[in-house]
Amino acid sequence: MPAPVIAVANQKGGVGKTTTAVNLAACLAAQGRRVLLVDLDAQANATSGLGLEKVEGGSVYRPLLADGTVVERIRGTAFPGLFVVPGEFDLCGAEVELARGEDHLNRLRRALQPVREDGSWDLLLLDCPPSLGLLTLNAFAASDRLLIPLQCEYYALEGVAMITRILQQVRDTGINPHLEILGIVMTMYDARTRLSQNVVGEVRQHFGDKVFDTAIPRTTRLAEAPSFGQPIIQYDRYSAAAAAYEVLAGEVASRLGFH
């Protein structure tokens, strides 16, 4: 059975998308799963957040253009069970290159197919760029589920509305009729503020049980961890943020039917 693929996506920047991709991947790996994190962002923050260097030619950019394979670009990390296909600046050019080619929305799905089917992985996580461009649409076409990080602020619902509209189009056009939302995770939550509580309440009202029970707190330690190339469970093992991501990983595993 092919490994499930989850796209971590939000077209708005600064919502904790990459933080969630990195820390969720690390926590799932710490639970004993083999996880492959694919960094689709030209900024390559997921790559540096796990202590890896950006390497020219090391991303999915060339495999998207049928030059080489994704398997050749998989790199180990310092964390058992967690592997990465790094990001690189060249991914900026992927939008233009993909638009010129045929079947441009299915390039990533085809590139990832051998990886999904080789039996090596329990899960593939795709860290999408903060936009709804061709790379993100390729991720939607290649994925089984979407995980949407949502910042606790008043414009949050607008972002989800846009993603759900695109999701519906991806389904309706037949690009990926089986794509579903795995869940929405509230990030940068501050229990001391009425704003955070109100936003979470409003999102739950709209999306019900699609919203994960766990909210990720806004903490300085979580913001510091990427500069040390470490996920929060290594950087500050007993912090509130580490606990939150561990619980979130449990929820994700449960929704995916992992045992």
Topology record:
Layout: E1 5-8, H1 17-30, E2 35-39, H2 45-49, H3 61-64, E3 75-76, E4 82-85, H4 94-100, H5 107-117, E5 123-127, H6 134-142, E6 145-151, H7 156-172, E7 180-189, H8 194-207, E8 211-217, H9 220-224, H10 232-235, H11 240-255
Parallel strand pairs: 1-5, 1-6, 2-4, 2-5, 6-7, 7-8
Antiparallel strand pairs: 3-4
Molecular structure report:
The chain is α/β, with parallel strands linked by helices and 259 residues long. A hairpin with a 5-residue loop joins strand 3 and strand 4. It has one domain (5-253): Rossmann fold, CATH 3.40.50. Helix 5 packs parallel to helix 6 (134-142). It contains 11 helices and 8 strands. Helix content is 41%, strand content 17%. The mean pLDDT is 93. It has helices at 17-30, 45-49, 61-64, 94-100, 107-117, 134-142, 156-172, 194-207, 220-224, 232-235, 240-255; strands spanning 5-8, 35-39, 75-76, 82-85, 123-127, 145-151, 180-189, 211-217. The protein is globular and about 50 Å long.
Key features?
259 residues, alpha/beta, Rossmann fold, 8-stranded mixed β-sheet, 8 strands, 41% helix, globular
Entry summary:
Helix content is 41%, strand content 17%.
- Name the beta content range: 15-25%
Task: Report the CATH superfamily.
Answer: P-loop containing nucleotide triphosphate hydrolases
Mean pLDDT metric: 93
Main sheet?
8 strands, mixed
What name does CATH use for the topology?
A: Rossmann fold
Helix content, binned percent: 40-55%
